[in-house]
Write a structure and sequence with these properties.
alpha/beta; 8-stranded parallel barrel; globular; binds flavin mononucleotide
Length: 353
């Protein structure tokens, strides 16, 4: 634990706010609730044959699920990353690490990131850095050495202009980011995944990234965790007088991002990750049917772990798997590739009646 006279780090505050306060979007949803599966009364498969496994970064995953990038860089993060990594190892899921910005200055907290590879020797692990860091003298060699130090299979770069804008100590420096990503994509020995943090990547932005050589896009859309909300809560300005308070709900719903970005498949070959408010295996199934290859989940997993520890995480993922397999069965999909071809029906506006 931190010595009591040290102020909490930024990351520590983020983790606390994400688990102790309501930081979800307030007036916006993922949009996934607008769809229903096309129920297939003649699926011609046995439930036990439904296998949601997939491949990602050269590994076979038992579920099409990434534990999205969250933490690292302070003492308490070691236990969280260890628990998440053990979960991923048991289930063969992919795992993202939190921003490694602090490691560019000092390796004091390296263990809080490295623990993931120690606990999960055979899963894909994703290193992480903020896009605004790329415009501030970060060299490809430095990033490569961090990737090696934590044993990562890919580097996620997060685009978070909204968060940086609202963050009290933020760095809203985004001039030159696309060129920096293009350059990194051509020199790094591992793939780059470009993600948002919950405000969404549109089709237009995704196309710029794909043209720059990126082959993995994680839309991280709106409807789940609001990072504007987290930073507005951290701000010392009274919310009732903060002129930017309305930005809490800024962002593109996850379902809209998936549809826009998936439309680029006819012109580009890439992996589409859907995240941002994926709350269940049913949401995951809909996201894949809308066009994603796999999905990512962040805050719900952290919350489950903080409330109930590793046993609760295990139960959560077991239920998640059951929901995904059930959705696949009732829509006639035996595999994840079949699920990608499943049709969704727009729900009628009065479905709640
Ligand atoms: C506590 C916490 C810390 C996060 N830190 C990072 C980070 O360091 N880098 C990053 O790319 N995304 C970070 N995220 C964003 C998530 O990866 C994800 O994109 C976002 O929370 C939306 O997903 P969700 O609705 O499932 O939470 C963090 C999320 C949480 C909950």
């Amino acid at each position: 634990m931190l010595a009591s006279n040290q102020p909490p780090t930024r990351k520590e505050e983020h983790v606390r706010l994400c688990t102790e306060e309501d930081v979800r979007y307030r007036s916006k949803t993922t949009g996934l609730e607008r769809y229903d599966f096309d129920y297939v009364a003649l699926p011609e498969i046995d439930f036990q044959e439904v296998t949601p496994q997939t491949t990602f970064l050269g590994h076979t995953l038992r579920l099409p699920l990434i534990v999205s990038c969250m933490t690292g860089g302070y003492n308490g993060a070691t236990a969280i990353n260890a628990a998440l990594a053990r979960l991923c190892q048991r289930w063969q899921l992919a795992m993202g690490l939190g921003s490694m910005r602090s490691l560019l200055e000092s390796h004091q907290q390296l263990e809080s990131f490295r623990i993931a590879r120690d606990q999960a020797p055979t899963i894909p692990i994703i290193a992480n850095i903020g896009a605004s860091q790329l415009t501030r003298d970060v060299r490809a060699e430095d990033l490569e050495s961090l990737i090696n130090l934590v044993g990562a299979d890919a580097l996620a770069i997060h685009l978070n202009p909204l968060q940086e804008l609202l963050q009290p100590e933020g760095t809203p420096y985004f001039r030159g980011v696309l060129a920096a990503i293009e350059q990194l994509a051509s020199v790094l020995p591992v793939p780059i995944i470009v993600k948002e943090v919950g405000a969404g990547i549109s089709g237009r932005v995704a196309e710029l990234l794909l043209r720059a050589g990126v082959r993995y896009v994680d839309v991280a859309g709106a409807g789940g965790t609001s990072w504007a909300g987290v930073e507005l809560k951290r701000s010392t300005t009274d919310p009732s007088t903060n002129p930017l308070a309305e930005l809490w709900d800024c962002g593109i719903p996850t379902a809209d991002c998936i549809i826009e970005v998936a439309a680029l498949r006819s012109s580009y070959d890439f992996i589409l990750i859907a995240s941002g408010g994926i709350a269940s295996g049913f949401d995951a199934a809909k996201a894949i049917a809308l066009g994603a290859d796999l999905v990512g989940v962040a805050r719900p997993l952290l919350q489950v772990y903080q409330d109930g520890g590793e046993e609760a995480l295990e139960r959560y993922i077991a239920n998640w798997e059951l929901q995904l397999r059930a959705a696949m069965f009732v829509s006639g999909a035996q595999t994840v590739s079949d699920l990608r071809r499943v049709r969704l029906r727009p729900r009628s506006p009065n479905h709640n009646r």
